[in-house]
Design a protein that fits this description.
Shape: globular
Structural class: alpha/beta
Order of helices and strands: EEEEHEHEHEEEHEHHEHHEHEHH
Number of strands: 13
Distance between the termini: 17 Å
Largest sheet: 8 strands, parallel
Strand order of the largest sheet: 1-5-6-7-10-11-12-13
Strand content: 15-25%
Oligomer: single chain
Length: 323
């Protein structure tokens, strides 16, 4: 069973969201559209984003049996008043179920994370309707994930896995050249959110029932774990805010495999073990892996057992199929 845990969707259209500059879609043809934010072009997308048959065709070509299908983060609405974020969440979550009517497409919902009570309500509604998990952004404004312990514990309590994706990346002249927001900003944001989970004490307060995965190989976290560990011991007065050293928590979360280089994949397996890495592609966006799974399939250092875990068995655990 080959399962891709990191893909995104965009509906082919949605009602007006009710505020000036709200995200909308300009459909340019049957196969292409443009996401507009604040009435400016944001991203060109293709029909793979909304056409289930096109998705399934691509999956067959790459030998993928199932996809986790998550929102595109620009639609989270965390920067809006909670009522707006609830509205966009409900619209997109309901449309996701239409796109994911085939059992091979596994819908993950979005929630108005800036209001934990409303986020819990929407999560519960989505679970009742058939969503299998939730994708959240790595922060809400200046609040990192350690401010959302109650929501994460609720996810653990009801058995909804959490996929964390960076969003709302910092801007400026130095990081807006060469797509550096995506190349540098996304890994850095993910790294920071994992640190917030550890040093913010989330893993000390939330039960081990929480199943949580971080996109893009966990950013730069695996490479700099030693630096974090050293700082925890040498400047314990400043960052000794978790009950245990950072390395103690690496079995509390998973990462996907979207790192594109066998040496990087080896590091992920060394740090998180073969049980802590899952196949991800970032389909259907151009910075994703294509063909899906080629890095894991071709990695010579992996045993057959490890390869099977990363390609699908770990995802089945993440999704609760073995619980």
């Amino acid at each position: 069973m080959i399962i891709d845990v990191h893909t995104h969707y965009v509906p082919q259209g949605w009602p007006d969201l009710g505020w000036p500059g709200a995200p909308r879609l300009r459909v340019d043809s049957e196969r292409e559209a443009m996401i507009l934010v604040n009435d400016q072009d944001f991203r060109k997308v293709g029909h793979e984003c909304w056409d289930a048959e096109k998705r399934l065709e691509a999956m067959r070509e790459d030998g993928v049996d199932k996809q986790v299908v998550s929102p595109t983060p620009v639609f989270f609405g965390y920067d809006r008043p909670p009522a707006d974020a609830v509205r966009i969440s409900k619209i997109f979550n309901d449309l996701a179920l239409d796109i994911c009517s085939d059992e091979r497409l596994i819908p993950f919902c979005q929630v108005p994370l800036q209001d934990v009570e409303l986020a819990v309500e929407e999560l519960d509604r989505c679970k009742r309707q058939g969503h299998r998990g939730v994708e959240i952004g790595n922060h809400v404004g200046d609040l990192d994930l350690d401010h959302f312990v109650d929501f994460l514990q609720h996810c653990a309590d009801i058995g909804m896995p959490v996929f964390v994706h960076p969003w709302d990346l910092p801007g400026g002249p130095r990081i807006e050249r060469w797509m550096a927001q995506w190349i540098v900003g996304m890994p850095a944001e993910t790294h920071l959110s994992i640190i917030a989970m550890i040093l913010g004490g989330v893993f000390d307060r939330v039960s081990r029932d929480l199943r949580i995965c971080f996109a893009h190989g966990g950013g730069s976290f695996a490479f700099w774990l030693g630096r974090l560990e050293n700082a925890w011991h040498r400047r314990h007065d400043v960052i000794g805010t978790s009950e245990h050293p950072p390395s103690h928590y690496v079995d509390r979360f998973s990462v996907d495999s979207v790192v594109f280089d066998e040496r990087a994949l080896r590091l992920l397996v060394d740090v998180f073990t073969e049980d802590g890495v899952m196949l991800g592609s970032d389909f259907p966006y151009p910075l994703g892996e294509s063909p899906v799974g080629q890095l894991v399939r071709n990695a010579g250092f992996l045993s057959g057992t490890a390869r099977a875990k990363i390609l699908g068995n770990n995802a089945r655990t993440f999704l609760g199929e073995f619980s």
